[in-house]
Amino acid sequence: MNANNLPTIYKHPNDVQLRSKQINLKTRQEKIYKLLVEIVSQCPPEDALQEFKRLFIDYFGSVNLNIRPVFSEIYFINNEQEFCDTLKRCCYILVNHWISQRKTRYIQELINIFENYHSHYNSTQSTPINIYKKWLDNFINSRDYEGLKLFAYRHDNKDKTKWANRYIAYLLVPQYCDKNNPKEQQEAAAKLSKQIRNRFKFELAMYIARSQSAASSETRYKNPSALGDNVLRIIKLIVIKRGVFNYENIANIFIKQNQNELLKDFKKSLHKYLFVSVKNSELVNILKQSLEELLAYWKAEENEEPINDILLLKICIRVIDSLTIENGREPSQLFTLLLSQGHPLTLVVILLKIILICPDARNHLEIRIANLITYYQNDSEDNCKWLINFIEIFNIMFAIYVENVEYNLIKMEEDIDCNSQSNLEAYRVFSQLK
């Protein structure tokens, strides 16, 4: 007998008369999903939680396995993967609805149901109930469950001390980009990530406004970044570069000039574009050489093909990987080199320039940011300050260049050189919706 499947003799009595091929598992699952959708849409969250608990927790501890007809549908699932997939989608039916209704505090209550669950199954007896309980235990110890807990981060006080939890917006990206996830999970992850980003943009704009106000000492708004008061100076340094030849304009010029170029020529143009306005240094020269070699060998067999949207996306993804996580598991050598030598802004600028010419690569970039956070999440905050600094600058740079808030510098003293970065105190930052 396989532990991942129920033995034939232990199938539900009502199922004995049916052949396995005649069992429409999808129909049975849809009954469960429909029930939960109706409950979560029509009933208070507390009732929805109670019904969920009855279905997946209390049901298997009951002597009467026919408490409610639809609940017995779960008992027809005789494969662990199908059981976990059903449980997972049921969780996200609740989560997705609560996020849409701004009732996210109940997500923690859902997590509490699992946290308070204590199984009492006999591992020596392969009864259906013991097998189902084992499957439930396995789910609670799975990556799927860890992903579910991300949605409750704001209501879990003990986890607020974990530095990685400040970047849930990125950790959710792989969930809504994975088409194998239930649609409710994809929708919930996208919604919550967007809500968190919008809150960051709003709090950043409010902090900037209040921190430059004469009454800031009394009405100081919370700084949403981890950069401290230095965030205002960093924003000024970024915004002051937004003249005629800012990153957006340079990107637009690049796109127009290199349409339909052969791939071999486009790779050279791309390399040159990425380092326009990037200050030269020994480290930057190493980076230039590494990317030049990477681009030269990348898909050399297609060098005579004209560049198109697909090739553009692929080449941008390849460069992103070389600058973040190259093998899909560990940080790349270039990423480690740049940040260990204190060049987070250089890396962020290059990543920004990639996204400005290929917005479709942004999800992939943010997945790589999530991968980096996950890779280092068990390290202490002190040991990860260099990574946190990079992510915070990344947040600020992208909030300024690719989001819907426009930042501008206003010179408060007329006799100050408007292009001087040494007189930032003479400027004030103003933000407005684009």
UniProtKB/TrEMBL annotation:
Q: Which domain of life is it from?
A: Bacteria
Query: What is this protein's name?
Result: Uncharacterized protein
